[in-house]
């Protein structure tokens, strides 16, 4: 592939790697593994052919075909086990549009750059948001769950809380929180080391960050309760039993929602009375150019959603970056060198946004980590009218799953996509320009992540503090055992031996 080529009209790829090529730590993201008993058992499940709907008489469209999977469950177990490899496998077998039955509902899985472009670009007004099914009861009326004109109205107001001036203030506030938190992970003393469960440890840190930058408070003794509430709400979206039965995820998610509502509602009066640099205050006082403001319920709904989005996505992304820097120590050294050079330049002060943006190698490593493991690996839509995708008939009301992570892993778009190769984003190659939807970890179109700049700065700040304080190397034989629920997370908590660096 020549960087810059478009993938227009190309057939789906047939392989994730060429014969004779050594497997990388990422091959399980592309090729479904068969070395575990559970993998072999899932492979042996019989195919159940399904047609979504017969096109109307006279239509030039074709029906959507696919595998209905297990009764009721569909292919949920395969996705939770294999994640992106399951989606890539479906794309190779059935093409860019296929039936994707899960939890008793016939859905449509869309992958590949051209098919996604129809939903996000050419036919975007035919599709509303589809997240209600997954997270509606727990994050109701968050920005992601609004659509069309109402979404546009809310987003216009919310943008006032994400101006560059406010982001500078948030960056100044979060930097000392991150540095102090990470310094506590390993005992003081030259070459001291400790095994840290990186994923849950970063999750604790990101809640401290959220308290400081989103709420302007010390979360304090309520930290555990709030973390549990966010986890319960997030995990409830893929609950197999979607009713509030005792002990079930759905019931836990509803209970978590109440905890979060009570917490933010109690803080509202004070946030309304005074202005401070945090996001909570920003939402309370945000006013669009035409005078639009948020009511109390809107502020609470948006705060619950924003902190969930920032809390979980930052944790997964920072864990992925740390993992790849441990697997590729030469990149860890490159990132450390530029971070220490910046420290010397600004004498250890909190960097400004333009200085963080100037950390080239850290930026390339972050982009490549987001390519391989985006924290939200797909988008959800629903057809608001009868329409089509890539010549396939889509009836009104059909739920649509946009598997954009497949685009991140196609050899039509990326040179050896299974490799960790940050230079593919460098100016000499810019493989992310092979198609306008080749790389979209923050989504695309009207629903593109409003907090993507803040999230990027937050992850860079975490990784900069990590390489400043510690060194780590991950054994060649270790592969991150990603589990795929609402947001990817390592099944083993990502244990890493951090060794304190000598000054």
Notable traits:
503 residues, alpha+beta, 3-stranded antiparallel beta sheet, 16 helices, 14 strands, globular, disordered N terminus
Summarize the structure.
By secondary structure, the protein is α+β, with helices and mostly antiparallel strands. Helix content is 44%, strand content 9%. It has helices spanning 37-43, 76-82, 84-94, 113-122, 132-135, 148-158, 164-183, 198-215, 223-236, 249-273, 279-285, 296-327, 329-346, 353-357, 360-372, 452-469; strands spanning 49-51, 65-67, 97-99, 108-110, 127-129, 193-197, 379-383, 387-389, 392-394, 399-402, 470-471, 482-483, 489-490, 495-500.
Structure description:
The protein is α+β, with helices and mostly antiparallel strands and about 500 residues long. It has helices spanning about 35-45, 75-80, 85-95, 115-120, 130-135, 150-160, 165-185, 200-215, 225-235, 250-275, 280-285, 295-325, 330-345, 355, 360-370, 450-470; strands spanning about 50, 65, 95-100, 110, 125-130, 195, 380-385, 385-390, 390-395, 400, 470, 480-485, 490, 495-500. Helix content is about 45%, strand content about 10%. The strands form five sheets. Strands 3-4-10-7-5 form a five-stranded mixed beta sheet, with helices on both faces. The longest helix is centred in the middle third of the chain and has 32 residues, at about 295-325. Residues about 1-20 have low confidence and may be disordered.
